[in-house]
Design a protein that fits this description.
alpha+beta; 11 helices
């Protein structure tokens, strides 16, 4: 048995032994559009994982991880998804900020911030998008200046679509620290605590189509963070922010595809039970979705460019949501219960509308593919 197979068998056995009792009730809970489900229970589960050394498995051993190889990380995420284990609550800290600090942070920052991520004691959110700086992230207006004595950064501005800010203790914020700077220049990457004096940080949940609120507006009004809580040098924030986005579209998405396969199988089973499979158009679309799912998995395993991968899975998942509504038929237009209770297929359809927007919109990903991968002329910009 190879080391990867041994690693896979180890995590599979551990999950079988530990996803029992109160934790068994968490199976399948959480995830995009369902982050409100059993949050405290999922937090307890993830801290249980941490106590047994199963968080941050891909991190170097010296920073609290297992030093798992890429193949072992793939095995971990696949087995976790196959076990129908609950959606992770520490994804942003573990998969985004942690790798960023390991690559670019100071030793002091690593000592301060990495252990609480490994232990799931501090949760993080991502302060990138703004009302006028979503897909055009370089249009950031949130600003930060050093206090007169140079001991703190003072942050003012607004962030939006900030996932899980209402459950987080910290936020990594892209802010403009050079007055008069434009676009990618003059930005810095700051680590900002959300628990501050009243009025300095205001987190306001945004109600979405599903009726839930997993992301928020965050207003900074004189928020403070220590002067040392800047990653890399002032003005290098764009470089660090782009590195974080690269980590966001990393190996953990392979576990996501196991969930996609489970959704496809469930939808195909529903089509058989309710007779929709008799419609040749429905049947053809189910077959096409399966073929595309297989192609997506093959592309991910051979290391497809992150922007290509994001375009692929986001559009596939959105299309699956639309197919689900057609399989369900007229019943898909009625809420499952009062006042606005949705079934899993309705929630999939509504939330997957956002798949082509978050983590980099389709339009931006297509520009990246065209200009950086294919070498086509750059889009004309004013």
């Amino acid at each position: 048995m190879s080391s990867v197979e041994e690693f896979r068998a180890e995590i599979r056995a551990w999950l079988a032994d530990h996803l029992v009792g109160e934790f068994a009730e968490l199976k399948g809970r959480g995830g995009p559009g369902r982050e409100h489900e059993e949050f405290e229970g999922r937090l307890a589960w993830e801290r249980h994982m941490a106590a047994h050394g199963w968080t941050c498995v891909g991190w170097p051993v010296e920073y609290g991880g297992r030093g798992a190889t890429l193949e072992e990380q793939i095995a971990f995420h696949e087995e976790y998804a196959l076990a129908d284990a609950p959606a992770r609550v520490n994804h942003i800290g573990e998969q985004l900020l942690g790798p960023t600090l390991i690559a670019f942070g100071t030793e002091e920052q690593k000592k301060r911030f990495l252990p609480p991520i490994v232990a799931v004691e501090e949760l993080w959110c991502q302060g990138y998008s703004e009302p006028n700086a979503g897909s055009d992230l370089a249009n950031v207006r949130t600003r930060a200046v050093l206090s007169e004595d140079g001991s703190e950064w003072i942050v003012d501005g607004q962030k939006i679509w900030t996932s899980l800010a209402h459950e987080s203790q910290w936020c990594f914020v892209v802010a403009r620290t050079e007055p008069g700077s434009m676009r990618h220049a003059g930005l810095s990457y700051l680590l900002v605590p959300l628990d501050q004096e009243p009025g300095r940080v205001d987190v306001r949940p945004i109600v979405q189509l599903t009726g839930t609120s997993e992301f928020n507006e965050v207003f900074f009004d004189g928020a403070r963070t220590d002067a040392s809580h800047i990653v890399d040098q002032p003005g290098n924030g764009w470089r660090i922010a782009m590195a974080t986005l690269g980590f966001e579209r990393g190996v953990s998405t392979l576990g996501q595809q196991v969930g996609f396969r489970r959704e496809w199988e469930g939808l195909a089973d529903l089509a058989r039970k309710n007779g929709a499979i008799a419609d040749p158009l429905i049947r053809d679309r189910l077959v096409q979705a399966y073929i595309e799912l297989e192609a997506m998995a093959a592309s991910a395993r051979r290391g497809v460019d992150p922007s290509v991968g994001k375009l692929y899975w986001a559009n596939w998942h959105r299309d699956l949501g639309e197919l689900a509504m057609d399989v369900c038929g007229a019943a898909s237009t009625l809420a499952a219960g009062e006042p606005y209770e949705l079934d899993d297929w309705q929630r999939l359809f509504l939330f997957s509308r956002a798949d082509t927007i978050y983590a980099g919109s389709d339009e931006i990903q297509k520009n990246i593919v065209a200009e950086r991968l294919l070498g086509l002329p750059k889009e004309a910009r004013v």
